[in-house]
Amino acid sequence: MEISKKGIEKFKKIYKQEFGVSLSDNDTLEKGQRVLRLFKIIYRPLPKTPEND
User: Fold this and answer.
1) Cβ atoms of residues 1 and 36 within 8 Å
2) d(CA 28, CA 15)
3) Are 11 and 32 spatial neighbours (Cβ–Cβ below 8 Å)?
4) pTM of the model
5) What is the CA 41 to chain-centroid distance, rounded?
6) In 3D, which of 52, 53, 10 has the Cα closest to residue 31?
């Protein structure tokens, strides 16, 4: 999963605002990739079952 330099900087700024911690580019990239993987896992459509039709 590729994250642009602009995306890294944006995530770094948001992280600093939310948690008061400055991250290195490498730490920011790692945390950003983890967030993206999490969203990829949880943002899937539910399988069709009689309960959720």
Assistant:
1) yes
2) 9
3) yes
4) 0.70
5) 11
6) 10
Here the contacts of 41-44 (C-beta below 8 Å, separation 24 or greater) are: none
Collapsing DSSP states into helix, strand and coil, what is residue 22?
Answer: coil
Structural tokens at position 2: 């590729």
Please state, in angstroms and as integers, the Cα–Cα distance from residue 29 to each residue in 7, 32, 44, 45, 50, following that order.
Answer: 9, 5, 23, 27, 41
Segment 2-41, tens digit of pLDDT: 889 999 999 999 999 999 999 999 999 999 999 999 998 8
Domain edges within the chain? 5-44
